[in-house]
Design brief:
The complex is a heterodimer of chains A (about 260) and B (about 1000).
Chain A: H1 5-10, H2 13-18, H3 30-42, E1 48-57, E2 64-73, E3 76-83, E4 91-96, E5 99-104, E6 109-115, H4 129-132, H5 137-140, E7 141-148, E8 152-159, E9 169-175, E10 180-187, E11 193-205, E12 210-220, E13 226-237, H6 248-252
Antiparallel strand pairs in A: 1-2, 1-13, 2-3, 3-4, 4-5, 5-6, 7-8, 8-9, 9-10, 10-11, 11-12, 12-13
Chain B: H1 2-10, H2 12-29, H3 48-60, E1 65-71, H4 78-94, E2 98-102, E3 108-112, E4 120-124, H5 135-146, E5 162-169, H6 175-189, E6 195-198, H7 200-234, H8 237-261, H9 272-295, H10 300-327, H11 335-366, H12 377-392, H13 394-412, H14 430-442, E7 446-454, H15 459-473, E8 478-482, H16 485-496, H17 505-516, E9 531-538, H18 543-560, E10 564-569, H19 576-600, H20 609-623, H21 630-644, H22 662-672, H23 679-689, H24 696-729, H25 739-749, E11 756-760, H26 761-767, E12 773-782, H27 783-817, H28 820-844, H29 850-880, H30 886-918, H31 925-952, H32 955-964, E13 969-972, E14 981-984, H33 988-1000, H34 1009-1016
Antiparallel strand pairs in B: 1-5, 1-6, 2-5, 3-4, 7-9, 7-12, 8-9, 10-11, 10-12, 13-14
Helix pairs in contact in B: 1-10, 1-11, 2-8, 2-11, 3-27, 4-6, 7-9, 7-30, 8-9, 8-11, 9-10, 9-11, 9-30, 10-11, 10-27, 10-29, 12-13, 12-30, 12-31, 13-28, 13-31, 15-19, 16-17, 19-20, 19-25, 20-24, 21-22, 21-24, 22-23, 23-24, 24-25, 27-28, 27-29, 28-29, 28-31, 29-30, 29-31, 30-31
Classes of the chains: A mainly beta (about 260), B alpha+beta (about 1000).
Amino acid sequence: MRNSPFTIKAGLTVGLLAMLLAAAPAKANPQGEKVIRLVEQAFLSYKDQFGKYKYLIKNRGGDKIIKFTLYNKGTKRLIKFTYPGDVRGQMVLMQSKDEMYIYLPAYRRVRRLAGHVRNQGFMGSDLSLDDMSIGSWSKDYTTTLVKQDAKYWYLSLKKKAGRNPPYPRLKMRVLKKIHEADKIEYMSRSGRALRTQTLTGWYCQGNSIMCAAKTILMIDHRRGNHKTYLYEVESRFNVGISNRKFTIRYLMRGG
Amino acid sequence: MERYGRFIYKHAFGIVVAFLAISAATIWIGVNPGSEDDVLRFLPKSNPQVGFFYDVNQKFGALHVAMVGIEAKDVFTKEFITRLGRTTQYLQDEVKGVHRVLSLTSVADFSLIKGKEGGLQTGQLIDTQHLPKTQEGWKVLRTRVMSKRHIVGQFVNRSGTAAVILCFLSPKGNVNNIVQRVKKAVRKNFPSSKIYWGGTPFISSYIFAVTERDLRRLTPWAVAVIVVITLLVFRDPVGVLLAFVATIFGGLVAFSAMKLTGEKLNLVLGSMPVILFAVGSAYGIHYLVRYYHLRKDHSTEAAVAGAFREVGPAILAAGLTTMAGFLSFLAMDVDPMRKFGIFTALGIGAALLAALAVVPAILALTGRTRKEVDADSWLKHAMGSGSAWAQQHRWLVILILVSGGTVGFYYSLRVKLAVETSSFFTKGSEPDLADHFFHDQFGGSIYTQLYIKADLDDPTVLREIRRISEIIEKQKLVSTVQSVAIPYSLVNEAMVELHRIPDQRKQVQTLASYVLSDPSSRQLMTMNRKEALVHIKVTTSEAERINRFIATVRRILKKEVAPFYVAVNLTASTPVKEKRIAEKALAAQTTDHLLAILLRSGVTLPAEARTNLARNLNRALAQGRFHATKADVETVANKVRRYLRSKECVLALPAPGPKGDPAKALAAALANLGPAAKDDAKDDAGAKALAGVVSKEDALTLVATADPYLADAWKLQESKSLVHAALQSVGLTRSRISKTVQKQIRVALLDLKVRRVAVPGSVATKAGIIGEKIPMHVVLTGMPVLYQGMSKSVQANQIKSLIISGILVLLVIGLVFRSVRAALVGILPAGMTLMMLFGFMGFKGLYLDMSTSMIASIALGTGIDYAIHYLVWWRRHARASAGKPVAAALQDASVGASHEAGTAILANALMVAAAFLMLTMGDAAPLKTFGAMTATAMLGAAVATFLAVPALAGSDLIRHWAWVGLDRKTISGHDDHGNGRIASDDGPASKNESSNERHRDAGAADRSTDVTKETES
């Protein structure tokens, strides 16, 4: 089950949303649960996805750019870093939220990472490996439709009891037309915004079924509003990605 | 001045209206400039050491780390860890201004997964969601946590009875507000625990809060004391109120100017109201006293103007010298001190202006009179007698003053220049308790740092950083050393199960992303991996011991760190000489690492151990032969088999069957080939071992992917064979060393196999080795170094401000009295007092710091006022004694001056001292020192005035004044033994002058009127 809006449609975003899940005993309303299911279903509108992305990390000492290629199929995801030189060739294979493999070309070996995925910014960005993993909102959160207008549904997600997503509360704004979340706020227990993700430049393919955002901006408010941009350079859906891509053998061959 | 007085009289109404308008304007602008609690602004950033420290720590975010220490019976209990986790999470998510929080429950960690699956488990060091449920489980957790060198002493103490939360604060927020929120959150979760607040933000906040509280609490009392003393002495409530109108005006102008320029109140500017009241009120009072005196017998206009004539220049000079004292702060390189100087001088200037314009104008409008009170006649007599005695025994007094000054000067040279942190806060205060807590439980709270600029992707650089760190770690005063080598070794361990710095540049680059993803690593290395910090925690906070330690570290750096290195690649084609030199360097580097491991495990070694071990390792390298035993083969085979059965393996081999275990077969086949097997041989052996189990292609894939594991396993076995020899060379046996340490040594010995070695530049140059240059720039910085820089800065500031204030004060008095000698006589009482005060500081071993360095200029600028007033009256009485024998004239001048100015001087000194003494009633240590020393200086200056001026102001001074035309009475045929007489000038102009003099001196020299008249006739 995928949950992160970005992953499924727009690439990496997926994970972002996925992790937001938190579940306190909150009262959901049927409309909220219905909308969140629509959002999740929207991500299942394609069989696979291939995309090229570019991170732009805004640092005080200068910007940093990281490029990678993404392969999505079902619940599996493969990220291959292509730039800069010191990360080129590194790959991350996500089998599930709790299990991933990293390929380290410099060591000529694959390392399995199990358990809780690290929740710290990856390569200095505001996105963590956890952000890039696959999750499910409805698994971890109860959803309430707070309000709506002609363009948006406004959702409030609270973590379910017994679940332990990285963020106990989320606020999500969903585009009614395409069932995609274009703004997600990751919040603390008391409702303080910790990070804000904004997706812009939406475009759709295949009779408006498959939609993706061209740009994702993640702002980490805890790091003095530190910004990471994620740009989609290229994205294609239903390209027929082989299952072999998501194997250790593929990793060991260096992709 | 008299003309000016008449001008005031004529335009009194306009002046009062203008005064009211300006006051209203200041209130409209606002007189509450707000406050600022950034203690870091006090850093003299133009000082190279301080500026460097500030820039570096700003870059690494180390300036804003708040340390919360929490005591517990046992940290490793469900209750404590749950609370710790909750607090950490709350601080991280809910407290605005906190960037990130590190504690046992948030610091990242990994554990290798034992058993078939392989890989590593990532997460928090202690996962609060999955806490142990049994006692045994807690024991295991404790053992795991306490085995981590980078955790113990950082987040938990060695006994497991105290934990630390590190909060990295935003540099932009209001530090005081943030730390208050942090405190509230921690206290809420640990209501019954002892909590300690350490680190710059808490100390800043404490100093600011305590000083602000003290100032807020004590300022009204200080003002009240001033008012009461003034009332007691002058017994004129309305007059006192008038005098304070000037002071209040000074305050309004200063504060509104601050508001206008956006300058906020800080620790030093907070003391401005007390200073303004203590110093600024004197001007109006001096004027009032004279006015009342003249008003008895004269019209309002004559009294207003006459008072100007008599005391105007003295008041002006006193005000200007005080302003000069404060303006000398402009020479300091500490921004808040400069601002303090500017705004306080502005306030004093405004108070002076009001005293010389508004107070006379109000008097002119009201025509106020008062019955003169001949207050404290006994005191007057006492002061008069004292001055007379000083004048009669001038050589004795001079001898005493010179001796006192000499002794003071001698001891003042012994004033300590180090910054002693304990002088910032009182015993038992919050930072003091925290200081002791972190010292006792965590090996200290003072850090010094090595700043390193180098290519941190280069493994040789990382190894060199580790080596330097470990050499420093061996020093006595060092508690812990944290360098970037630690996280690299840890992540390398996560990746390849070897706790060491990787061999290849590419590997280091691979690990960098993971190292930097841990926020705590960002205090050790910049994101661009060009700069690093090594944090050295020292076990003492005593300034002198720290200074000695710094000197030691500097020596080590000079000896051990080369400005550049030359890379030598050890290949078959490397020239023998080059190879030998590189191997020798490699052996030396590995030796230092091994010795550090042994020392850390509690083994102390003799001095010659380093040489022996290096020689032995060098020999081993030269021989370069490894003979694998059967046991080695088995161990290697087991390691390869473990990989083949893990989830990380590229292919899932069939389970063991009747024909055996294919994984075991393949592993054994590969291991049996030995450490130097060629690829073809491995392929053949692999294909053969897996024949019939998997396809040949899969078998070859398995061989290829198992190869790194095979190579690592052999390297480890090879280094294992060296452990015994290594231990033997330092007189140890394996039995004396734990298995864990043996394993560490084994891994450390892998460094001998690296193929790229950094040879110190000087060695390489000498040997003619040409290769890639590896630059490395290492600078010692950190709080102790900062303190050294600050001390130097304080010393320089002290000298600069003292010289400037001295020159300005001399200039003002010199101009007023038109005499260098008078200026020197005038400055001497305050100067000698200061000398003795600094001598006292040196004698008592006190430190010259920011607060004590302020005293000199203030005391000089303000203390000089007494001498000015005294000299004015002294001159007048000396002049009035024309015709008398010199000795008698000088005697009269001394007694007369004491009578006229004595009460005002003493009263002023008392109220200033009392006001500053009020500051000693608080908790802020710097304020207490400042208050006590300023009070002493002011009292001392007053007393010294009564003794020094009569002793030093001789007949030649009178003659000098006559020469410059200030006085028309000269001494003829005098000597200092009373021969000769004061005579009047017989010239034609002198008659008019004499007449004017008489008019000017109406009342002023009333006690000697008869003498004057006699002389003039």
